[in-house]
């Protein structure tokens, strides 16, 4: 009992007497004069087995509980071993920051090891200016910093993002010749590229590195360019890398694909040609990386045939030993280009064989495919797969995956499941709020969408463009015209958001659907940008629904002008003429369509039966059971006619 009281008293004395501020102030006093503040003397009894510093040093290795640490520290006091640099170094690494500084302050002649230990502790806590102060004290003592010293200092710069200190550290690195040390150079490169975003200095450090065989150096600079929306430099650097027969890691490829994702449409074809040529010139080991980029680029450019060709060739040659990245690229490409069936087919192939395990990126694409098809049963199966195969709690912590689930359930009509996923999320960001608001909107739950929008402030989440688009869609699908007008006006007045084309399109659709066709046309006239096919399509659709044949031709002509190859404008105008029995105009329209070779796009639908998704195109006879289907339909039509009579 006495012993417990003794160590509790020691702990309280250590923790209450010396705050971090006091300890750092004491550090300045200690290291600016030869007078050092020494530990007070103690008269605690000691065990014979704890009398040797070497034994105490060994006790500080491995796991040490807080209570045991205090016992060891007390014994160090008793035998006067607190000036031992090895013991002090290990104590510094064990104690909270303010006590660690206190331990250091009482060293009379610290060597490089306790200096590195205290710099590391301060760096881990983001106290870069204090860490740098210890570094300057080290220099005043004529001690030579080593590579660990600079690595710890550079680590602290990631949190502070103080470019002035980074440049000072860089100067010391060069002055002491550590720019030739690969570990230090990589740390400096990372701080410039990912920390303070100084890509000019980052590339300069990269160019001056004596050896460039470390993949992480290339990855870091490529990632910096990608994150700074400079895809051309990132891809050129990647080509230089594979040109030197360096094999990129998955982390490198993620940054390369990120750079590809921000290429402008007119740039895609150029880079497709560059990488196609490169795939011929590089060695076999680097060819897989080039193929992954080509799969992604072809998909982004809408050339899924070429993308699948490269993918199949890659998988065949790799014999199942491929990364998850090409699978994600091809599945994502199919989803983005409106081919959900092909995406789901590849996913089934992926999880059935000796292929790489799907990750959260794969699952986001697969859930998007389920949403496109409207297959709720398959979506539920994917949800279960994520829960069983993914790490514990992934749906609560991974906002991208949870948001994809919310979107899938909403589009499949299961709002209860969508809301359950939303409510279980640990952190709700603006993207997850947007997905849930849009889910309510698409299912005609306008009041619920507006209610959730009002709760965003309680969570401290600032609405963005996507949020207001969801709110306007909710008003559109629920006929909340007055609320829609109010929110459209508040975008710029209250939320400092400038309405974009999609917001105008949604607002015009809201007005037109509700029969305010003239007001909708007035909004079109005041738009600060050119109306697109969606705007004119919404207006034309409203003209048809509300029998405004007087305004329909004007909207139809503008729709055909902005989207001449789309049959929708011709079809809707034809319907409007049909309601008004203007058969001659309909004949003229059909003649114009033949003349311009405009074909009506066939409708498409899916249905899931016994976990198999069946796809149907209007006019298509390709389904293997088409004869039986027609036979059943004929029987149904006959029964309907009998019931009608």
Describe the model.
Helix content is 70%, strand content 2%. It is mainly α and 645 residues long. Among the domains are: 520-601; 604-644, no CATH class. A two-stranded antiparallel sheet has the order 1-2. Strand 1 (604-609) and strand 2 (612-617) form a beta hairpin. Residues 6-24 and 26-48 have low confidence and may be disordered.
Summarize the structure.
The protein has 645 residues and is mainly α.
Q: Which features characterize this protein?
A:
645 residues, mainly alpha, 36 helices
SSE map:
Blueprint: H1 2-17, H2 20-30, H3 53-59, H4 66-79, H5 85-94, H6 97-105, H7 112-124, H8 128-140, H9 147-160, H10 163-175, H11 182-195, H12 199-208, H13 215-227, H14 231-243, H15 250-261, H16 265-281, H17 284-300, H18 304-318, H19 324-336, H20 340-352, H21 360-373, H22 376-389, H23 394-397, H24 399-411, H25 415-424, H26 430-442, H27 446-455, H28 465-478, H29 481-494, H30 501-513, H31 517-526, H32 533-545, H33 552-562, H34 568-579, H35 583-595, E1 604-609, E2 612-617, H36 626-644
Antiparallel strand pairs: 1-2
Strand content: under 5%
Outline type: elongated
Number of helices: 36
Question: What structural class is derived from the secondary structure elements?
Answer: mainly alpha
**How far apart are the first and last residues' alpha carbons, in Å?**
98 Å
